[in-house]
Structures are given as C-alpha cells and as structure tokens.
Amino acid sequence: MELPRSAPVVSSVSNIYLIVGSISNNYLIVSSESNIYLIVSTVFNIYLIVSSVSNIYLIVSSVSNIYLIVSSVSNIYLIVSSVSNIYLIVSTVSNIYLIVSSLSMSRPAPNTRTVSSVSNIYLIVSTVSNIYLIVSTLSNIYLIVNTVSNIYLIASSVSNIYLIVSSVSNIYLIVSTVSYIYIIVSSVSNIYLIVSSVSNIYLIVSSVSNIYLIVSTVSNIYLIVSAVSNIYLIVSTVSNIYLIVSSVSNIYLIVSTVSNIYLI
C-alpha cells in the first residue's frame, strides 16, 4: 500500500504502529507479537479489524451499513445492518443463532427454519439443547429461547415489551406498555409482581411464609403482608388510613380519617 509522504511511521522492538493520514482517510495499524489492529476511517466509513491468537474482530460502518464479525476458537459472530436488513449469525460448537430481517424470503441455515414476508419475520433456530424463536413484524418483535432449563420470551411491539425468563427455579415476566410496566419473578420460594402504570404501582412478593402486596395509585396506597401467623393490611387514601394486623391471638384495626382515629 502506497502511503502519503506526510504519514508518520513509528516502529519499536515489539510493536509496529502505522498511521496514514490524508484529507479524507485515516488509517491506523498496530501490530504486536499476538495482535494486529487495523482502523480505517474515511468520510463515510469506519473499519476496525482486531486479530489475535484466537479472535478476529471486524467492524465496518458506512452510511447505511454496519458489519461486525467476531471469530474466536469456538464462536463466529456476524452482524450486518443496512437500511432495510439486519442479519445476526452466531455459531458456536453446540449453538447456531440466526436473526434475519428483510423484506423477502431468506434461505434457512442447517437445523434452522426461517420464514420472512413483507410484514412478518419468523426465525426458529434449533440446536441439540436450544430452541430459539424470533418473530418480527412491523410493530412486534418476539424472542423465545428454550434450553434444557431456561425459557426466554421477549415480545416488543410499538407499545408493549414482554420478557419471560423461566429456569429451573425462576420465572421472570416484564411487560412494558406506554403506561404500564409489569415485573413477575417466580422462584422456588418467591413470587414478585410489580405493575406500574400512570397512576398505579402494584407489588406482590410471595415466599414460603410471606405474601406482600403494595398497590399505589394517585390517591391510594395499599399494603398487604401475609405470613404464617400474621396478616397486615395498610390502606391509605387521601383522607383515610386503615391498618389491620391479625396474628394467632390478636386482631388489630386502626382507622384514621382527617378528624377521627379508631382502634379496635
């Protein structure tokens, strides 16, 4: 490669640095004993190549395209983003991941079924232990990952985002809309539910001995705590506060209004 006369070159015992600068292009090459780095920057393009003993990284960014290739001993990653297409391929020893977003049919990979239409994109990737399903429409993106112990579901639409994670002991559900956010966490002993809207926030925590419920609106706050021997209920409105405590032998009720306080 012919270099401009103004390009500086610096060489040391173990490293070689090469910088090439011109009006529209900047090139940087760094070579050590085990690494080779290449950065190419033009007016519209940025290229980055990193090669080591086990890894090769390639990033290509232009006005309409972004390419990322990462190759190691067991992994190959490829991301291609253009104006209308997004491709993601991840290949490991036991897993094959393929995400294809286009407006036409795409040829399926081995052990993979891909269906693409003008408004829908369906992708199923099946390996020995994993099943991945990505469904993307004009307004929805669904991701299902099924392994031996895990199930992941992400569904994203214009106003909704759903996330379900199921393992041997955990189930997570996040649902986000324009005005709502839902979180459910279920493990062997715990269940958590958070629901947040413009005016409401709900929290449920269930363990072996406890159940917690918090409901908050613009004017109301509710708290329920249930244990093996205790039940607690707090209800707060603009003018009223209610507290119920129930144990094995005791029942307490406190009602407080703007001008009154009651104890039973």
Describe the structure.
- 0% of the residues lie in helices and 57% in strands.
- Among the domains are: 1-62; 189-264.
- It is built from no helices and 26 strands.
- Strand 9 (86-91) and strand 10 (96-101) form a beta hairpin.
- The chain has a 16-stranded antiparallel sheet with strand order 11-12-13-14-15-16-17-18-19-20-21-22-23-24-25-26, with no helix packed on it.
- With 264 residues, it is an all-beta fold.
Tally of individual helices: 0
Low-confidence stretches: 1-264
| Structural classification | mainly beta
Shape: elongated
- Count of beta strands: 26
Topology as a string of helices (H) and strands (E): EEEEEEEEEEEEEEEEEEEEEEEEEE
Q: What separation lies between the terminal Cα atoms?
A: 91 Å
Note the beta-strand portion: over 45%
Biggest beta sheet summary: 16 strands, antiparallel
What is the strand and helix layout of this fold?
Blueprint: E1 9-11, E2 16-21, E3 26-31, E4 36-41, E5 46-51, E6 56-61, E7 66-71, E8 76-81, E9 86-91, E10 96-101, E11 112-116, E12 120-126, E13 131-137, E14 141-146, E15 151-156, E16 161-166, E17 171-176, E18 181-186, E19 191-196, E20 201-206, E21 211-216, E22 221-226, E23 231-236, E24 241-246, E25 251-256, E26 261-263
Antiparallel strand pairs: 1-2, 2-3, 3-4, 4-5, 5-6, 6-7, 7-8, 8-9, 9-10, 11-12, 12-13, 13-14, 14-15, 15-16, 16-17, 17-18, 18-19, 19-20, 20-21, 21-22, 22-23, 23-24, 24-25, 25-26
